[in-house]
């Protein structure tokens, strides 16, 4: 489910008169800014990452900060699901500080179904949902609400562009930290996943619940929210 535009019909042959500015505008549309989050003079921008340069930034972050965890989970740094996913990239002062992947799962197909074939039963027979995964925050920004902003922006964008309202994600089980957050509820006990037998739980939430929970948390921690016209 890519955000890329599909050409509607064949184009006549001829010289390409596209200018650098036109190309830049096209890329900016594909990497559209979704929401700005501002606190104490610091602004974070979350945008779609639908071009090769922006996805390369996500790949570099994964290679630098997420590779060991992915290896323990038994998945490559970039897999087939990444190609068709919607990716969100968070930048602060033009530097990438976090990212999130969203995929569409339905009728036994999708990344969550590969790990949890019985997921539709766990969700009460509802087999179509959005899967949030590959959430990543660079070490120096952890604990600074980057994840909160990523989830908030992702939910806003999907609410505006899809009728699907259920979100599913796998949460890592860590001491002193609940894997179910932002209004989500766990639907499994801790389960070992991947060759590293990493304990995870499957969690689910509704888009509107997650939007409200993340917005409240951001406001409580002093972040103002400015959605763009893309929302």
Describe the structure in your own words.
By secondary structure, the protein is an alpha+beta fold. It has a single domain (30-227), classed as Gcn5-related N-acetyltransferase (GNAT) (Aminopeptidase), CATH 3.40.630. Helices cover 33% and strands 29% of the residues. It is built from 8 helices and 10 strands. It has helices at 20-30, 52-65, 67-73, 80-84, 111-115, 119-122, 146-161, 207-220; strands at residues 33-39, 42-48, 86-92, 95-105, 129-137, 166-172, 185-186, 191-193, 198-206, 224-227. Strands 1, 2, 3, 4, 5, 6, 7, 8, 9 and 10 form a 10-stranded mixed beta sheet that branches. Strand 1 and strand 2 (42-48) form a beta hairpin. Helix 7 runs antiparallel to helix 8. The longest helix has 16 residues, at 146-161. The chain is globular.
CATH architecture assignment? 3-Layer(aba) Sandwich
Class in CATH? Alpha Beta
The residue-averaged pLDDT reads 88
- CATH H level: which superfamily? Gcn5-related N-acetyltransferase (GNAT)
- Tell me about the biggest sheet? 10 strands, mixed
Content-based structural category? alpha+beta
| Percentage of residues in strands | 25-35%
**Quaternary organization:** single chain
Number of domains: 1
Order of helices and strands: HEEHHHEEHHEHEEEEHE
- What are the low-pLDDT stretches, counting only 5+ consecutive residues below 50? 4-17
Helical coverage, percent range: 25-40%
Q: How far apart are the first and last residues' alpha carbons, in Å? A: 18 Å
Compute the number of strand runs: 10
CATH topology (level 3) name: Aminopeptidase
- Shape, principal axes of CA atoms: globular
What radius of gyration results from the CA coordinates?
18 Å
Helix count equals 8
């Amino acid at each position: 489910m890519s955000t890329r535009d599909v050409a509607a019909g064949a184009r006549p042959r001829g010289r390409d008169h596209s200018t650098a500015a036109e190309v830049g505008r096209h890329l900016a549309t594909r990497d559209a800014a979704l929401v700005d989050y501002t606190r104490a003079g610091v602004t974070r921008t979350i945008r779609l990452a639908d071009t090769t340069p922006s996805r390369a930034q996500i790949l570099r972050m994964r290679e630098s900060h997420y590779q060991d965890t992915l290896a323990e989970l038994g998945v490559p740094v970039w897999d087939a699901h990444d190609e068709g996913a919607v990716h969100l990239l968070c930048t602060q002062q033009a530097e990438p500080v976090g990212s999130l992947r969203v995929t569409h799962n339905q009728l036994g197909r999708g990344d969550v179904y590969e790990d949890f074939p019985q997921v539709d039963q766990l969700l009460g027979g509802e087999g179509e949902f959005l899967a949030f995964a590959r959430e990543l925050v660079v070490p120096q920004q952890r604990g600074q609400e980057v994840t909160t902003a990523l989830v908030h922006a992702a939910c806003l964008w999907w609410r505006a562009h899809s009728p699907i309202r259920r979100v599913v994600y796998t949460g890592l089980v860590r001491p002193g930290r609940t894997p179910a957050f932002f209004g989500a509820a766990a639907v499994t006990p801790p389960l070992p996943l991947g060759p590293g037998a990493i304990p995870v739980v499957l969690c689910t939430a509704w888009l509107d619940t997650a939007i409200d929970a993340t917005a409240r948390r951001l406001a409580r921690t002093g972040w103002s929210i400015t959605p763009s016209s893309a929302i």
